[in-house]
Design a protein that fits this description.
Structural class: alpha+beta
Order of helices and strands: EHEHEEHEHEEHHHEEHHEEHHHEEEEEH
Strand content: 15-25%
Shape: globular
CATH architecture of the largest domain: 2-Layer Sandwich
Radius of gyration: 25 Å
Number of helices: 13
Largest sheet: 7 strands, mixed
Oligomer: single chain
Number of strands: 16
CATH superfamily of the largest domain: Nonribosomal peptide synthetase, condensation domain
CATH class of the largest domain: Alpha Beta
Distance between the termini: 93 Å
Helix content: 25-40%
Length: about 500
């Protein structure tokens, strides 16, 4: 038995009607690299069955403490059935990209059952007319509840299911599978002991919070928390429905890297935020809804230490960063976002470790009440004072090609979860020299996801063009200076010789 951390449990408490809190992704595979040029469904089942022991996520389910007096536990499911979790479906003809996105949105909108291990895989055939991919491809859609893993853990989970060559590797002999059946009385006893420990834990956290309070006070004095004021309310800050739209398109990572290299100190994350900011600016402006003030994004960051890389669950910090959507010039916006990101990283008003400890000592019932009270506070007619307008996360994936039962992974994107009154989530995934941006949105808030993709594409092109022009200007200046210096030197030499 393993108890969920406070941060893991938070994603359970945040799950409301129409707001499933799972993450996942869609992977597309080229079967031509597999032995015989085809991958059968039974091969995928056999491969997964041989690797169940490599991750605890596969076979464990939740056991809830009676009356909600403590955080739930992970326990092995004695009735685990692999074929319940891995399902085989097909797109209807013609099997194009739009149909795949519609299917992905519908599957992503459906919550996972809590009495089963909280993951599902859908093997999808019939991708006969998806432009940009080889013929005879198939897709795999993965859903895992956020209480079981975050983005960093998801990358490790993907590595378990894939190989580095078309040859399927032998994962080795599995250790004996031990099933522990928890007793309600035992969980209540543990919860009782935890209740007596909490006062001391709370005292330790308060004692350690001094540096955080000093950072907060210093930040207020220096007016460095300007992004924590009132945020402009957009169409994405309404009540979330049960319906989703998903759109994912791939760009050349080399183009992103070239933009990054035009300004010293700029990161790939800075560029990705600038692209999304430009896309949001164009989209909202086309609706006549572009706010005068800048939008703000939440940026999840992995806070694991080197020793914690193999740990499951969630270890996520969060930064709030201005998207500078009030700035029209893309290069100026990139420079400002770079400064905002550097400031957010340096200030750290409350560390992720401190936040995690606070979540660990909160009683389970109190956390449920707090999470739902926050949602009620930002309900219809309320003044919007949330921390951000959207979420943008960037996941660096493998730099080498991956294979599933011999089929090469040729396309890979991640899908995030929506929160109450936060109806737009962006995930950017970097894999094999390509970057894929996948917005997930409430369908009523964004009925035209293909148009939003065009806004993102136009944002990237305008930023790339502006960066290229800046590089050309910078290159012309040094050449002029060198030529002038050589001319002066030549004149001086002539004078000396005379």
């Amino acid at each position: 038995m393993q108890q969920l951390s406070g941060q893991d449990a938070m994603f359970l408490h945040a799950e409301l009607d129409g707001l499933p809190q799972h993450i996942g992704g869609v992977s597309i595979y080229d079967q031509s690299t597999a032995p015989g040029g085809k991958v059968r469904f039974k091969q995928i089942l056999a491969m997964l069955e041989g690797r169940l022991h490599l991750s605890p996520i596969f076979r464990r389910k939740l056991a809830f403490v009676p009356y909600g007096l403590g955080r739930p536990y992970w326990v092995e499911d004695p009735e685990f059935d692999l074929e319940y979790h891995v399902r085989h479906i097909a797109l209807p003809k013609p099997g194009d990209w739009r149909q795949l996105c519609i299917l992905a949105a519908r599957l992503h909108a459906t919550p996972l059952r809590r009495d089963k291990p909280m993951w599902e895989i859908y093997v999808i055939e019939g991708l006969n007319n998806v432009q940009g991919f080889p013929p005879n491809c198939f897709a795999m859609l993965l859903k895992v509840h956020h209480c079981a893993m975050d983005g960093a853990t998801g990358t490790q989970f993907m590595n378990i299911m894939h190989d580095l060559s078309p040859r399927t590797e032998d994962p080795g002999k599995a250790p004996p599978w031990v099933v522990e059946r928890p007793s309600k009385l035992g969980m209540l006893a543990r919860a009782y002991i935890d209740i007596w420990r909490k006062p001391g834990q709370v005292f330790d956290i308060v004692k350690q919070a001094g540096p955080a309070l000093k950072r907060l006070r210093r930040g207020e004095e220096e007016e460095r928390f300007h992004y924590l004021g009132d945020k402009p309310k957009t169409r994405f800050q309404g009540k979330i429905s049960r319906h989703r739209v998903v759109e994912a398109r791939t760009f050349d990572f080399g183009q992103i890297r070239d933009i990054k290299n035009t300004q010293p100190g700029t990161t790939v994350n800075d560029v990705m935020l600038t692209i999304v900011a430009g896309g949001l600016r164009k989209y909202l402006d086309s609706k006549g809804e572009l706010p005068d003030n800048s939008l703000v994004t939440g940026c999840p960051i992995d806070v694991r230490s080197a020793e914690e890389r193999s740990a499951g669950g969630n270890m996520v910090g969060f930064m709030n960063v201005s998207l500078c959507t009030d700035i029209e010039d893309p290069l100026e916006r990139l420079a400002m976002i770079r400064e905002e990101m550097q400031e957010a990283r340096a200030l750290k008003p409350v560390s992720a470790q401190e936040m995690s400890e606070m979540q660990d000592v909160l009683p389970s019932t109190a956390m449920t009440f707090a999470t739902r009270a926050i949602g009620a506070e930002f309900g219809p007619g309320k003044r919007y004072r949330d921390n951000h307008n959207t979420v943008i996360s960037v996941h660096p994936g493998p730099s080498r090609p991956l294979y599933l039962c011999g089929a090469r992974l040729v396309g890979y994107t991640s899908m995030g979860a929506l929160m109450d009154h936060l109806g737009l989530n962006h995930t950017a995934t970097i894999y094999d020299g390509k970057v894929t941006i996948a917005p997930v949105c409430d369908r009523r808030m964004m009925p035209d996801p293909a148009f939003y993709y065009e806004c993102l594409r136009a944002s990237l092109e305008s930023l790339s063009s502006a960066a290229g022009d800046a590089v050309a200007r910078a290159r012309s200046k040094p050449r002029y200076a060198v030529a002038r210096k050589r001319a002066v030197s030549s004149t001086a030499a002539t004078v000396l010789s005379e």
